[in-house]
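task queued by scheduler; priority normal; single chain, no ligands, no partner chains; default sampling; output format set to structure tokens
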Amino acid sequence: MSNYLLIFIIISYLSILFYIAFLAEKKSKSIWVNNPYVYTLSLAVYCSAWTYYGSVGVAANSGISFLAIYLGPVIASPLWILVLRKIIKISKQQKISSIADFISLRYGNHRFLGALVTIVCFLGIVPYIALQLKAVSETFEIMTDDTSYVSTNIFDDSTFYIAGLLAIFATFFGTQKTDASEKHRGIVTSVAFESILKLVFFLIIGVYVTYILFDGSQDIYSKISTTEDFKNLTTISGFESGLNWMFMIMLSFIAIFLLPRQFQVSVLENNREKHLKKAIWLFPLYLLLFNVFVIYIAWAGKLTFGNTVNAEYYTLLLPLQNGNVFLALLVFLGGFSAVISMVVVSTLALSTMISNNLIIPYGFLEKFIKNHPQKNAKYILRIRRVSIFLIIIFAYLFYVNFSIELSLFSIGLISFVIIAQLAPSFFIGLYWNRGSSKAAIIGIIVGFLITAYTLILPFTIEAFTGSSNFTENGIFNLSFTKPYALFGIDFLSPPAHAFFWSLSLNILVYLVVSLIFKGNYRERNYAEMYVDSMSYSTLQDGALVWKGEAYVADIKNILIKFLGEERAQRALNIFFTKYKLPQDTQLADARLINFSEKLLTGSIGSSSAKILIDNVVKEEEISLVEVLKILEESKENIANNKLLKEKSHELLTLSNQLKTANQNLIVKDLQKDEFLDTVAHELKTPITGIRAATELILDDEEMDAEIKTQFLKNILQDSDRLSRLIHNILDFEKLSAGRNHLDLGKNSINLTIEKAVVGIQQIANRKEIKISIPVTETVNFYYDEDRILQVLTNLLSNAIKFIPKKTGLIKVSVKKHKKYCYVYVEDNGIGIPKSDMDFIFDKFYQSSNQNTIKPEGSGLGLAISKQIVEMHQGTIWIEKSNKMGTIFGFKLPFN
């Protein structure tokens, strides 16, 4: 493929990424941008060129050991709900903008510690970016068939131009906002898009190699199993290999939390903690899919090429050898996607740390104090852009001098071991409040020096001198000083060996120094806030125990320098409103000091924010005894306030319950009066009809026989109505008093429903209402048929009252589920008002919203039905009610 064509494709691809990022920023509040899937896919920035190419190389040469780097994150992911959620909560509250800010804040905004963490991250990530340059350079050469040419001039080196292109892209992609704690929705969305592409393209090449070049995984396995070193490729040989696996898993476990790019996407770019629930299973699934075909591609490449080519690029070489340039181009773009996402996010994180923890606090702070807000914002962005170029320049120099001799896998592990030196101060500091800044600093330095001696120094000496004397003999030929076999431990791989010694001594120093030297009052305050996550929301407002004098006007002037007049004033107004302070307050307290530092942290980092605020306040030193006393009083006040709030809440709840009960009693009393009036009226109406008809018959002896018959029918109907009313009242009284018993027998609920429908059919026919019973499985069980017939009749009668004539429809259905029989009566009537839903089964209750003409009834039908169903150990309820109709349901157990 032509160089120019491939460069054109790369630039076109970068343009697409720019467009996606632009759209995402423009629609930053859209659900397409803010959802757990985008968040989880952004975490896949972990899968860099090392994953895309290096894993295949390791699988080809060392077998299944490549899996260790992915098992660590898989083991870590369930802990995100506990650990990562805590980290996210603290970071949001304190406007953390980097992992350096997070660690330095834990130890009292310690400036030197923030700078040290930044330097460690820089030294750890530069080789990692060099790894990406190496991968892009070598794959570019493979795609353009330019592997034979070795450049001696920097301007003839394609890697130099690729590095420049990445620097430009990363600069304009990641430095659009002054406040680094703000979300970068464009970057996150484009990284998520790239994560999809690199996975899909890798799966495509996996399927191509496994099922097109070979006859499936079984075919590859049967062929590779005949090779000499097959056993080594598929097993962990012995205790020593097991230890190497364990240390590699531990290393990757730490990396998924502490790599600056992972901290950026998992913590700083998280806008909803609940997204973690999706990420804890979706991210491991992503890693699983990414590794499904790794071993088969590696074996296929080994069978095809043997040891004649670099195994890391089998994914490109296999399709190219078979003339499939398009598929090779997809693989190249997948690998390029992995590189772009890693470089952009890493340089964004590193440039923020360099500006906020090195350049601004150690050189430019005084200049910023004298400038206007607009100029300061420009300076900050300029510093970050220059930082990105410097990072990539150093990565290029590392690539030129070292990485040509090293594999992608080796470079990645060097970075992991360096970054792991932050682990003790980070993880132990989250859960142990005794840890001090002095311990963190000494621990990191000791750990890094051990790493430098056991891992960095050996390959550096070999790269520049070509001699392996130091590696083989150590210092002064003392065997216990061998960098790869320190104190006689010679059975670990160099990265595992360096990780073991550096982290062991790092942790030991951290614990011992913390116990010997206590942190100052500021450290103890922030330690309390970090450790006590349960009380975090209360502690964070008073996290700064402070004693001294400060003026609001002075603090406001500092805020204006970096936030501008409008933002600064708005922030102070919010602060005074939140704490119910007068807007003209002149003296600042600890809360305002803490609030102001947090406002500045996003733009210039926690260390610089502390320096600026310290310049305008007159702080007095506080002894440890005073600190403990203040903390104790604070805790006591918090406990008392919490108790008072709980008691107040309990009293309010009881008051509301009493109020509700009183209202219910009033309603019940009114309903009871209305019920008695209704009963009296209902009794009086048929009696009056009977009396009137009887008198007419007696007075008129010559009355026509047909008329007399009609009067007698009226007397009979009124008598039946009176009988039913009296029966209902007596029946309800018996059920309520529990004096009735059930006559249980094995019956068919289907037949009982048919009997109920037959009994009510004549009334339905008068209103031209249709009643349907869908054909279902016959359900037989023990129940009192007469009583259940009564329930069904009540429900059907109730439905008939409230559905329209001619168009009315009623459906009665049955279904079995587990240990219950469910019966539903559905109609298309006017529905039941929401205000009546909670009372519809109460005795004496009739809906207050039954149109102008109140339907006939005493209000006892549903109450009686509820009593009968509950006597059967069942339940009755309203399934649904709206303007489209109502569904009543009840269930009876299979006894």
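post-processing summary
- The longest strand covers residues 809-817.
- The CA atoms of residues 7 and 632 lie 65 Å apart.
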